[in-house]
Write a structure and sequence with these properties.
It contains 9 helices and 10 strands. With 253 residues, the protein is α/β, with parallel strands linked by helices. It folds into 2 domains: 3-63, no CATH class; 73-252, Vaccinia Virus protein VP39 (Rossmann fold), CATH 3.40.50. It has a 7-stranded mixed sheet with strand order 6-2-1-7-8-10-9. It has a 3-stranded antiparallel sheet with strand order 3-5-4. The longest helix is centred in the N-terminal third of the chain and has 18 residues, at 73-90. The protein is globular and about 55 Å long. The chain starts with a helix and ends with a strand. The structure holds S-adenosylmethionine.
Length: 253
């Protein structure tokens, strides 16, 4: 994939692909072309110009929306037993940001925790993603009933099952606001107590990460917590105004 092709693809997708990991991008696009019978990238790019559905389809594939309720449950256990109780002692109602929320399982897991720990709080969970299709699914709040196994037993009664689907009930939905936000170009929400950005930064080139971590630090209030994915580490947290807490958690100092 040449730089020129990445530039054209970025224009047609309205997405800054130069920030993404080149090998990973190449692998995802090659797999997409093979699955959809495009013989080369230039033909794909010209098809994308006139076909918004194909554009959306490719975006869905690039984002790799893989997600789960309570992904990495041992770490969510630390969130439930230590991080959130500490935050709730200091701030009665929490403003949480789930950045790269995919189809909504992450913000609804956060909603379940907050409902469980502090149901009276006027919490807000801002759930953002670049992918409109994922956000539309998220807003619907319906998932195969089989996904209930991802939810730890203690929280299962907070979700409803209807006609073979998990349906997120209004008690949890009321906390969550979905909106489209490109982490590479849009302004970030401010005044955040807990910033959850998991399994997204791994797609970005190392060079773009410092800018993102600086902006995360600005989004968070003092004492607020950044929660990263299990394979993401913030090297040199003090350079951004963070101190390490537990594995995967960093406090804004
Ligand atoms: C692998 S999913 C992770 C979902 C969830 N955070 C989790 O850990 O289960 C990564 C998400 O990041 C989103 N994404 C990719 N690039 C993005 C960008 N530039 N801005 C915002 N979201 C982006 C994708 O659309 C996708 O939904």
């Amino acid at each position: 994939m040449t730089e020129e092709q990445i530039k054209h693809l970025s224009q047609v997708l309205k997405l800054d692909l130069s920030a993404y990991h080149p090998q990973q991008l190449q692998r995802l696009i090659t797999a997409f072309m093979q699955r959809n019978d495009f013989p080369n990238l230039d033909i794909l790019i010209s098809a994308l110009r006139s076909n918004p559905k194909l554009r959306q389809h490719l975006l869905d594939n690039l984002g790799i929306n893989i997600t789960q309720f309570f992904r990495d449950p041992q770490i969510w256990d630390i969130l439930a037993k230590e991080i959130l109780p500490d935050l709730l002692k200091e701030f009665k109602s929490l403003r949480v940001w789930s950045a790269g929320c995919s189809i909504g399982k992450e913000p609804y897991s956060l909603a379940a925790l907050l409902y469980h720990l502090a149901p009276q709080g006027a919490h807000t969970i801002i759930a953002t993603d670049i992918d409109e299709a994922a956000l539309n699914h998220a807003k619907k709040g319906e998932y195969p009933a089989d996904d209930m196994k991802e939810i730890p037993p203690i929280y299962r009664p907070l979700f409803t099952v209807q006609n073979g689907l998990i349906v997120v009930p209004p008690t949890l939905r009321k906390f969550v606001q979905f909106r489209r936000l490109d982490l590479l170009s849009d302004p970030y929400p401010q005044g955040i107590h807990l910033l959850v950005c998991r399994n997204l930064l791994i797609y970005f080139r190392p060079e773009v990460k410092p800018r993102i971590f600086h902006s995360f630090a600005q989004s968070l209030l003092k004492g607020g917590v950044l929660f990263l994915g299990a394979s993401e580490v913030l090297l040199n947290p003090s350079a951004y105004g963070f101190e390490p807490l537990q594995f995967g958690f960093y406090r804004r100092v």
